[in-house]
Amino acid sequence: MKHLIHKTHHPHLKKRAMLEILGLIGLVAFIILQRDILQESFITVLEVDVIWFVILLSCYWIMLPLTALSYRFISPKPERLRLKTTILAHLAGAGPGRIIPGGIGNLSVGAMHLKKTGLTIEQAIGVVVTNNIFGLISNGLLLVGVLVIRPEIWELISSNVSSQQLLVAGGVLAALIILLQWLMHARGVRQEINKASRQFKKVFFRFIRQPRKVACVALIALTISLVHAFMLDFSAFALGINLSIADALVAMSFGVVIGGVLPTPGGVGGAEAGITAALLVFGLSAPEAASVAVLFRLATYWQPFIPGTLAYLYLRERRLL
Hints:
By secondary structure, this protein is mainly alpha-helical. The protein has helices at 2-33, 35-45, 50-74, 83-93, 104-116, 121-149, 151-160, 163-185, 187-208, 211-238, 245-261, 270-281, 286-302, 305-317. It has one domain. It has 14 helices and no strands. The longest helix has 32 residues, at 2-33. The model is unreliable at 1-13 (pLDDT under 50).
């Protein structure tokens, strides 16, 4: 019997070990490829105000439990979702999950953990997607509010956007639409998307019939968006640069959009470019704008990278991923 169990599980364990070794190699290679950004981040850190820098770094860890709480409110089986391991899963998404472009890796790590709590993979995806929809809506509402209160920001941005930039944005959008259409016409992919879509609708409509939980998730999403905007503000303060919270919110939104569209791990390069471009429009010099963007990404992207990798290994060891 023992021999049969050993034979049954050995191929699976071997494949898992190979995948984790490949993932580790990928992580090391990614860090080596991004050594210039890391070096620039280190140089920037040497110039910061220590108090503002500590506040900036602390904000990330204050936010970490909020997503876990949001998952619990949305989940069809909240009683099976433990906050401690869900927080670790979200942190793990900020480690190895960042290797997969566009934030998809972070989402997939969260979905895999929710599946381990007893949800189907389709339900897990539904919870994660619902949470991110609320995040996008909250950020959009805050952005619209800023533009309504300060319409000059929109005028400033529109007057500084070139036709070439609009063409590039249009080209990227067209490519994404074509890719989506191609995926929808692939039979196997279409079946999986339809199956996940049906489960997502069940999770979503069940959730929105609970006003208190919806209000809690909406409040969490707004809090996360605001804290991210304040983190960009704190990044500027740490470098002795004055930046209003309204400008920070707009710049952060630019970074999120461009970082999410570009097919790089965690939006590296794209997010920094989007934030820098917006800050240039708001009157910062090129070195100032780049330094603020790099410091912000150091706190939100690079800071949780090693802890996230350790969290990933811990959860894998306990078969919670």
